[in-house]
Structure formats: structure tokens, C-alpha cells
Design brief:
Layout lengths: L15 H12 L9 H27 L7 H110 L3 H13 L2 H8 L6 H14 L5 H9 L3 H6 L8 H12 L5 H7 L1 H20 L3 H72 L1 H34 L5 H17 L10 H5 L2 H9 L6 H12 L3 E5 L4 H9 L6 E3 L6 H11 L3 E3 L11 H4 L3 E4 L2 E6 L2 E4 L6 E5 L8 H4 L2 E5 L4 H16 L1 H34 L8 H36 L2 H15 L12 H14 L6 H21 L4 H18 L5 H9 L19 H10 L8 H7 L1 H9 L12 H4 L2 H11 L4 H13 L11 H6 L7 E5 L6 H11 L3 E5 L5 H14 L2 E5 L8 H9 L11 E6 L7 H6 L1 E5 L5 H10 L3 H5 L5 H21 L15 H17 L5 H12 L7 H12 L28 H9 L15 H20 L15 H15 L15 H7 L7 H32 L6 H11 L5 H6 L7 H21 L4 E3 L6 H16 L6 E8 L11 E4 L2 E3 L2 E3 L4 E3 L7 E3 L2 E8 L10 E6 L17 E7 L5 H7 L2 E3 L5
Parallel strand pairs: 1-7, 1-8, 2-3, 3-7, 9-12, 9-13, 10-11, 11-12, 14-16, 22-24
Antiparallel strand pairs: 4-5, 5-6, 15-21, 16-21, 17-20, 17-24, 18-19, 22-23
Helix pairs in contact: 1-2, 1-3, 2-13, 2-14, 2-52, 3-12, 3-13, 3-23, 4-11, 6-7, 6-9, 6-11, 9-11, 10-11, 12-13, 12-24, 16-23, 22-23, 22-25, 22-26, 23-24, 25-27, 25-28, 26-27, 28-35, 29-34, 29-48, 30-34, 34-35, 41-43, 41-47, 43-44, 44-45, 45-46, 49-51, 51-54, 51-55
Length: about 1550
Amino acid sequence: RSFNCCTIDWFTPWPRDALLSVASKLLGKIDLGEDGALAKVSNVCMVIHSSVREASERFLVEMRRTNYTTPTSYLELINLYTGMLGEERTINNAKVERYQNGMDKLKSTNVMVGELKVEIIKMQPKLAQAGVDAAELIEVVTKDKEAAAVVQANVEEEAKKVTAITEEASVIKLDAQKDLDEALPAFDSALKALKSLNKNDITEIKSFAKPPPMVMFTLEGVCILKGVKPTWDDAKKLMGESTFLADLETFDKDNIKEKTIKQLKKYIDDPGFTPELVEKVSKAAKSLCMWVRAMDVYARVAKNVEPKKAKLAEAERTVSEMSALLAEKTAQLNQVLARVKELEEKLLNTIKERDDLQLQSDLSTARLGRAEQLTNGLASEQVRWDAELIQLNQDKIDLTGNILMASGVVAYTGAFTSNFRSDLIKIWVAECQANGIPVDAAFSLERIIGDAPTIRGWNIQGLPADPLSTENGIIVTKGRRWPLMIDPQTQANRWIRAKEKANRVQVIKLTESTYLRTLENCIRVGNPVLLENVEESLDPALEPVLSKLVFKQSGRLLIRLGDTDVDYSPDFRFYITSKLPNPHYSPETCVKITLLNFTVNQSGLEDQILGLVVGKERPDLQEAKNQLVVSMADMRKTQKELEDKILKLLAESEGDILADENLIVVLGEAKTTSDEITIKVTEAEKTEKEIDLTREKYRPTAFRGSLLFFCASDLALVDSMYQYSLQWFLALFDSGLENSTAAEEVAQRCENVNEFFTYSLYRNVCRSLFEKDKVLYSFLVCTRLMLSDTKITSAELRFLLSGVGGVYPGKPPEKPADWIPDRTWTEVIQAGLLPPFATLPADLRDNHEGWKKIYDSNDPASLKMPGAAHEKYSAFQKIVILRCLRPDKVVPVVQQLVIDEMGQRFVEPPPFDLKLSYEDSNPISPLIFVLSPGADPNAALIAFADTSGINLESLSLGQGQGPIASRMIDDAIDRGTWVVLQNCHLAPSWMPALEAKVEGFSIERAAPTFRLWLTSYPSDRFPVAILQNGVKMTLQPPKGIRANMLNTYIGMEEEFFEGAGTKARDLRKLHFGLAFFHALLQERIKFGALGFNIPYLFTESDLIICQTQCKMFISEFDVIPFEALRYTCGETNYGGRVTDAYDRRTTAMMLLDYYNPLAINDGYKFSESGKYGPPDGNPKLPAVLDHIRAFPLHELPECFGLHENANITFARNETYALFDAMLLLMPKDNTAGKDGGPTPDEILQALAQGMIDTMPVKSEHFRFGLPFLVDEVGELYPTDYNESMNTVLTQELLRFNSVIKVLRSTLQQLVLAVKGLIVMSADLETVANAFLEGKVPALWLKACYPSRKPLGSFFDDFMRRLTFLQKWIDDGPPPVFWLPGFFFTQSFLTGTLQNYARKHQVAIDTLRWDYFVRLDHPANKADDGCFIDGLFLDGGAWDLTDNVLCEQAPKVLFETMPVIQLLPILTTQFAVKPGDYPCPLYKTSERKGTLSTTGHSTNFVMQITVPSNMEEAHWVKRSVALLTMLDD
């Protein structure tokens, strides 16, 4: 088959077996650490996926947020786990190794310390003995030295004698020397020349392969003197000797042989052998030449001094003998000195041994010092490392479970709020423990995979420091998929911009035409990209990026964008943010991205506001705080780096660590720096505490601001148009700080700011609220402030709103007096379940007459409560009691509570001020009119534009108008004019384009006078960003008959009436009636079903066309065609909107009062009181306006034709509407049960179990069981042609059986879920929430008959219906049928007609009902037709004397109707008698219904004609109807 225009929901959940199978296969590829772990981990993976799916269902019910969990999500969990497990295992092992190595080194050093201490102790005796030995040797050496000194003296005496003789020899020698000195100058010159030579000079000569002749000639002379053959080879050998030059210098010149001198003669006599000539050949040879010639001179001189030498020799012989004697004595001395020396050496050795021992001792002591320096210095680190090592080892054990938890958090929980995340983690941890997987019981994502310095850096960059934001930051960086952040307050957007600023992040929007080009460039170069302000769908062009479809080609990483392959940089990062507060992303989108909820929470916002307050009030303090945060982050980062450095040095050290003094010094310096930083951190923490103490003084203002923001933002749950951005709120808060009254004391200043800003926000928020919600907002703020101040409890507030206090143990007591309505007594019993009201039922029972005065009073709040109740209960608790007794009087008392707690001005919303709204705006923030039916801002806007001197252009949006509107905006921005775009709700498809246009506004481009005005009815398609940042104004038609009439006439011109000529008077009269009719229609809606079954949106256009037709008919016809006027107005124009037949009857009857011949007469009145009617004569408009202003300010129900009790109905409806709206805004109660009352789970279990016990499977009463055994009943009541009631009975049993099954199944599952035996599904969560609010679950109503009763009454009514059917089974058809007991009432009525038709042999389609009211209660069944009872009259009463319809008694809203006989008759026999009122019968007081598949209305049953003493129109305007059940 072909399916068009439909979407197949193919995201069906995988069964548990499939989840287990997939996990087992994928996880089987990795090491999970132990045998059997695969099955355990697979099972937990399955539970994680299943629990998230269930949590998503609950998330949708509780938070109205959608989160999809698909098979792709499950695969992502497993892939993330496998990757993260290996990565974290490596990191953990590396950390363990580093810390273990450090600990081992420190432990080994501690061992060395002990060993060194022992070694030093052992060394001390040896060191002492060495000292003693050295002292003894010193004494011996000293004595021997003294003996040696005596010997030395003797030797010195002999030496003197030798010296004297030696001196004589010296004289002789000097004489000889004198002769020699003549030859010495040449000799000295030769020596000097020799000394100038060096090794290189000789090498130079040797280097000659064949020396020059003069050089060779010189060397031959040298060789002759040295006694060597004068050849070149011998000369080279001679010069090769290392002492060659030294030998020449010390040459024995005194003993040169004669033969040698003769051999030299040949050379000396050679004229070329001169130093000057030789120098020309070789400088070195010159010196040798000089030496040879000097030796020749010296030898010839020495011949002359030979005799002198002989004499000298004799003298030297004598000296020698004397010297021998001296030598002998010197030898003796030397022996003595040798002994002394030996002793001294021994002494030196001893001292050396002593010093070596001392050195060894000093080294050991030094090593001990270094060891103690190391161990003492790192003592604190050792303690910390030990603790860290213990934790790391435990983490190593828990790694499998912890990383499984972390993977689950990263893969699944991004979209959830913090309480949902914590609930899921608890489930997962418990499942891990149950499966025997080691896991940290106090699991924290931040501790397991977070990095503290990195997180502190994020905080500095703007990420809030609350745990939820920290988890979000970790998920952003650890997730495998690109993050899509739900960011209505743009916190994530600002953080990403700051975080990636250094990486040159590029910001794009889908509305930009060039965004793909920017994205392509960033992918290529590796710049991060932030895609902001996305809606609920993403451009398909992003698919490759979102899915990371990267491939490798020719060694390059590529990604295909469109038709282009783009180089893919691994550094590329992609971030997506959305301003939508609650977007709904399709499953296809969710599987490609990591959805993250960055919506601000109260604690995080409170800290932000605190920073704002302190920054304004104490900028020095805030600056110090900011600097401190930055410096502490830097110091902790440095501290971590130093710790890593210390561990690295310890890890890299080899051998004896104590021998590496440099390492110890470096470690010491690192430790010193670390200690200094630790001290600074400690001081900084102390300073931070001091700063925080001062900052905390401003906490009350921050708390108030945070509370008020969530009061305003929560209003979006009431109406999607109530949107307020955090930026707008903070700007308003900043303005409050600027404009509030200053004070010296911080406490007083906070109080001033709180008071000023609370009202400032109230004024700004009220401007954008409909009238019905202004009281709601005041009450919301008031109660949340009272909750925060513990003036009230959440249990009291929840009871006030829901009327449910718990489950009464046992059977509730009977009400003590008939005047107490059943609902009142039920709610009093419920209130008594709360500790503060425990005695209330007894008080009411014991003093019911006193309480009756309050019940009967028109102003019950002004009366004192009887007995001690007036003093016992607080003002709020009195409202709780008033809710039970007189709910119609609650709203004024709520307003009085607001006045008492907050001030009069909080119940007096500021009037609509277009000028003030304009002044609060700017060219880039649109002004938005949120409309309600009958409201039109055009006239006021045109007038304001004229007053302001600004050109105004207007366009009503619709199909094809978008491009025109866009051009108008572009033109107006430049020219500084105003543009009005009307009816934005009619162009939902163009709203994204409008949002993009508004986002593109810049204060630089827009002219200062430019403004964009928008009008729209409430629509969930209206752009949230525009609502949040624009100036919103609600526009509603004036309330009340008087105001509505004035609104109609103020805008009229006299020409309208004068145009009718002579019939102007008639036109004025009938037009006045038309205007009054229009006002009545609009105001009658407030009475709910008493006004109209269906609330209709009558507008000004209906009035305008009727005005035109009225003038036309009067002007063009001689006789006013009232019938035509009534038809065009009542049936065509206004009637065209009316879809319910009885509402159409009501409008026709109402219009008859204003379009009739009497209406043009003077003195004609519209109401019985005579307070309303047209002015007499033919007055002009000013007089008409004065006449209208004389109308009562607050109209009574009689002008609508309603009974005065209608005001009670209206007030009750207003109260319950207020409470229902407040219930939507009620925070989740986490304190229930802590004050001694029952917890929600206890209430749920008691309620559900009580209902299960009341609806038994089988009992003495329900002998056929519940559900009914239809087959067995069918045997008792078989199908019978003459008794259709048998078929009716079995059909009813089948219908009720379906309801019984749904109720019983739901109740049983709820009990199990509360006990924790099964998971609380989304449906069960919905049921539980309804139970706690005292409402019937939608799941039940879907399977059941219509009912508006609260939960307790509904169940009692349901059991009464079952009892009615059981009694019918047991006793046969009853004489009087309890009509409310039927599920499908029309079936019973048709069966009765069928019985009559078959009995009397007439066609059933010729029959209809006739009706007779019986004041008795028949004991026998009717011969024809049937008797029915159980009906209630709404809007009227029954006169039991005259047996006719009559007026209600005051404050009696519903009357029990007597028994009615339904008698089938032929249609032709039926006739309506004068005074008869065709009264509609409905199942519930709501009256409106829908057409069901059976062709019948889900609410309307039939029309019953009842007798009356008044005209039908009277009861029609009274909206009198019969009901099968009440709301109580």
C-alpha cells in the first residue's frame, strides 16, 4: 500500500536480548580485566540504555522535554566505552607508575637514612682510635726531631770550616776565571743565540732533504765538537735528540781536545763561515755558527789558564777531603733525619687514615643530610602521593565500572537536568554493584575523567562553576559527537567563544549565505567553528560534518562538502548552540550530535548575580576576587607542574639518588617553590574566604534575583509567549542596582535593592502578561518568597493548589452538618492529614454553627474564625481553609496575602503605556503586541506615531507577504521610520526569516528612530529569541460591560448616525443595543459553561459588520426588518462563530432583547434591574458616553440574564484556573515527609493499594468478580427480543470491564513501581503526578466515560456505578434507573425505545420521548418507558410544591432533580406546552463535547422538556441544564 503525508515511527526500542547480544559482540574485542566481565558489562550496558529510555519518557512527562534514545545511541555508548577504557587505563597506569616510582624512591631513601645512621654510629669508635694513634706518633716524632737538631748543629760547625777552605779555592778560581772572561762574551752571545732557538727551528733544519752548503758546513763543525761524524745523517740524528740544544748549552768547553781544535781550524778560517753570512741561509744555522766559533775562541783562551787550574785543583782537593768528613757527619745527620721522616710519614699515614675516616663520616653525614632533606622535604608529598596512589589503585580496580558510568553520562545524559542525571547514575551504580562490577559508589564524572586545572580554566573563561555546568563542559570535550547545546541564556555560547578565542574560533549562523564557505575554510585550516541560534532542524548540508564522514585518500584526510572534497584538519572542532528553551530535535538529529542542556539553574545564576552585585557595590572586592581566582588557578597549575617535575626527576634518576647532589638541589628548589606556592595558595584561600565572607553579605540580593528570574522564566509553562532572556533580566537587574536607594549598611542596601528590583521586574513582566496571569505572577512570587523564608511549607502550598493532603487511614467520618458541601468536607478531611490542620475536621464538627457563618458570609475573609482557629492559623493557612469552605472567595484573599507580604502595588498592575514601552526599547529590539480577541493596537499606534512625528508603515502578514515585509524593514532601518507587521501568527513559515532579520540588526546601522512593531496572537511558532529580547506588551479588550461599551463608542463619529437622516434616532437606539449585545457576548464567556458551552472568540470585526448592516437595514427599509437584523447578526455574523446548537439558542434569545420594536422606545431597559438601557431621545455621542459612564463599574449577573449564583461559579472557576496554572509552576518537592507527614511514595502506595482493595477480584458483593464475568451474566440475562435491557446490561459490563482492567493494571504497576520492584515508566509517572494533585489520570479518562471529578470522588463514583450494575445483576432491572451509572447512556435510551416499539409494534423512528417529573420514588418499574434519577439541575432549581422549574437559592449552585419518567410517544403526539423549557442534559458540567465514532456527542445526552412558570427565554439566558454528575 502507498502511504502519503505520514511519517513512520521506525525508532522502535530494541528488545533486551538484542541489546545484550550487540554489547557482547562489540565488547568481546577488548580486555575487560577478568573472566566473566563481558556478560556483566553487557548487562549493565543494556540497563543503562533501558533506564535512559524510561528516564526520557519521564523527562517528557515531568519537564515537557523530549530526548530520544535510539540503537545508534547504544552503539555510541559501547564505542565510547571501548575507546575511553583504553585511554583511561593508559592514563591511570602512567599515573600509578609515576606515583609508585616516587614513593619507591622515597621509601628507599628512608631505608638509606636508617643504614647511614647505623654506619655513622659504627664509625665513631674507629675515628676516635685513629685520633689517639696520631697523638702518640706526634709525641715520638717531636723527641726524635730534638735529637736530630743536636747532630745538625755539629754538622753545621764542620760545614763552616769547609766553607772557609772553599772560599780560598774560590779566589784561585776567580783569577783563572778572569782570564776566561775574555772569551766569555762570545760564548755568552753563542748561548743567547742558542736559547733563541726552539724545537721548530731545529725541525726546520732537519726538514731539508739536502741542506744548503753553508748549513751543512755549520753542522759539520757542530758534529766535530760533539765528536760525531760530520755527515748529514749523523747531524740529523744529533739534532733529533730531545736534549740537543740543552747539550750545546752545557757543553764541556773546558775540556775541548787539541785534535778537535785543529779539525775546527778549516771551518774557522773559512771566510764564508760567519754568522752574518750563515744567517742569510738559515737563522737557526746562524746560532749554531756562533756557538762553534765561540767554542773555538774559548778553547784557545783556556790554554793560558791551565797552571792556574792546577793550583785550583789542589785547593779543591783539600776542600774535597774536608767535604768527605762533612759528608760523613752529614750522613749521620741524614740517618737521624730519615728516622724523623719515617716517623713523620707514619704520622701522615695515621692522620690520613684518621682523615679518611673523618671524610667517610662526613660523607655519610652529608648523605644522611641529603636523604633527610629529601625525605623531610617531600614528607607532605609522600602523604599526598600515598593517598593518591591508594585512590589510583582503587580507581584501577574500579576502572571497568567507573569508565562505564562515565561513558553512560557522556553518551546519554547531556539533555537531562541534574536531578535526572543523579537518578540515572544511582541506578547504574546499583546495577554495577549488583553485577559484581567494581565501581566507585560515590561516582563523580569530574573526579573520574575531569582535570581540575582545566575545569578552573573553564570557569575563568565563563563556564558556571556549578556541578551541572562542569559535567556539561566535560561532555563537550570528551564526547565523540559534536555538541549541540540548548542554551537559552547563551552561557554556553559565551564560554565556547572564550575557550576557543586563542584558536581563532569562527561564529556562523544558518541564516548567513556564506556560512558553508566559512565552515569549509575552518575544516581545512583547523579553526574551531561555533554554529549558533539553530532551530529544531539542521541544514542537510551539515550531514557529513555531523556524521564525521572523513575518509583517507592518497595519504590525505578528506571530507566531502557538497560536491567538493575538502582537506580535513584533525584540529577542527564544531560546536552548535540553540537559544530555544525547549527544542524538539528529531531522532535523526539526536543520533548525530551530543545534546546538552545548558539551561541556567538557580544556584549557578545566584553566583552570577552575586558577582554582578558585588561588582557594582564593591568593585574593588570583585576585582580582588577575580584576580584571586585567576592567580589561584595559575598557582595550582604551577603546583601541579612542579609535582610532575619532581616525579619526573625521581623517575629519571639512576643509581644512588643521594650521590646526585645536583638532583637533590633541583628537587629541593622545586620543593621550596612548591612550598612557597602552597603557602601562597593557603594565604589566597584565606583571603578568598575573607572576601567571600564580605561578598556573602550581598547573598540575599543574589538569592532574590535568582528566585525572581525563575519566577519570570517559568511563566513560559503557562503561555509560550511569556519568554524572558537572562541578558534582559540582568540588564534590568543592573538598572535596579543603579536606581535603588543607597544605604551605609549592607543589609539595608540589600533590602533596598530587593524591594526596588522586585517591583521593577513586576512592572516589566506585567506589561507582557494577560490580565488573568497578573495575579498568578504576583502570587507565584509571593509564595516562592514565603517558601524561601520558611513562612509556608510546600505541602501547605500544594494542598492549597490541589486539595490533596494524602490518604485518610480508614473510613472518613461523616460530615457533621447538611450545609457542608461534600467537596468541602472531603477537602477538610484531606487538610487534616497535614500536621498544621490536624484538628480542623474536629473544629468544624464541634463548632459547625460558627463555621456556617463564614460559609454564608458574602465576605468570609473579614470574619474571625470560630474558637482558637483565628489565632492558631497564619494568614496563608486561613486561605487554605477558605479554599475548602468558599473557593469562590479565594482570589481576593490571595491578593490580600500579596498585599500583606509584598505591598499594595503588587496587585495594581501598571496601566498600558505605549510611550513608556517605546522608551524602554531601542532600534534593534522589536516591540511586540501579544493580542487577545477583540484587541487591536492599530489606532493607538497610528496616533502615537503621529504624536512622535514618525512615518508608520503597516503590513498584515500572510502568504507571500514575507519578501515585502523584508523590503519594508530594510528601507525603514535606513530612513528611521516605523514598520508594523500585523498577525505574525498567520505567517509561521516566515518567522525564522524574521528572526534572522532581527538578529542581523546592528545599533551602528539602524537609524536611532527606527522601530519594528509586531502583533501576534499567542503562538508556539513565534521566535523565542525575538520574544526574549523584545519589548512585549499584551493588549486585551477592556473588561466589563461599561468599559466595553465605552471602547465601542469612543472610536465612533457622529457622521455614522447622522447618515441615517430621519432614522438617526432609531439607529442610535438599535446600535446601542447592538453594542450592549457585543459587550455581553464578550463578557459572558467568563462564566464558563453557564455563559457558553464553548468559549467563542468574538471580535471587533463582528461588531463592525453588524453596525454596517444595521445602518443599511434602517436606512433602506421603511419598516425596520427586525427579523432580518436578528438573522444577519445572530445567525450569520456572530452566529457564524457559534457551533453549539444550545449556544446558538442562547445568542438568539439574547439578541431578541435588543433587536425588537420595543427597543426603539424611550424607557426601554435591557435588564430587570433597570440599570442598563439606551439613553432616551436622540442624544449626541458625548451624552451617550456620559450615559454609559453611569453604568455600574462591576456588572451583576442579572444583566446577562444569569442568576446571582453565576458570580460564585465565575469566582470558583477563576480560583481553580489560578490554582491549575500554579500547579504547572510548582517546583518538585524534595522535602516531603521531612516534617513528619507522609512522603509522596507513601501517599501513592496508600492511595493505590486502597483502591485495589476496594475493587476486589471477587467478593461477596461482586460475586461475579471484577472484571465482570459477562458470559455467566449472559446466562442469567440472555439476549431477548422483548427485553433489550439484557443486551444493554452486557454491553455496559463489557465497557466497564475495559475500564476495570486499565485501572487495576495501572494501580498494581504503580504499587510495584513505588516499591522499586519495576521501573516507573512515563505513563506511571503521569498517573503518579495526577494522584499527588488529586486529579484523575489522563490514562484513565482515555479509557473511561467523561468526568470532571477529583480523584477520590471519581473512584467513589466509579465504584458506585459498579455497585449499580452488580445490584442489577443480582436483583434484576431496577424500578428507577440511576442514569449516571451508565457508561454509554444513549444505549440505555435506545434500548428503552426499542422495548416500547417492539411491545406496541411501532417503528422506532416514529417515536420520541415525553417527560414527566415525579415527586415520589416509584417502587415498581414503569409499564412503558422508564424512570430515571440521579440528575442535577445547573442554573436552576425545582419547586417541589408546584413541580416546576424555579430559581436557585443563594449559594446553592446545583439542585438534585426528582425522578423523571421517560415515556416513548409518537412524534406526532408531542406538543410543547406554554412555559415548558427544553432543557439539555449533559454528562458533566463542562457541557461541551466532541462528536464520537458512534455519532453521538461525548457529553450531550438528550433534551428533556420540563414545566416552568416563566418564559423559555428566561431559562435559556439562565443557561439552565441537567447534569448526570457534578464536579465534586
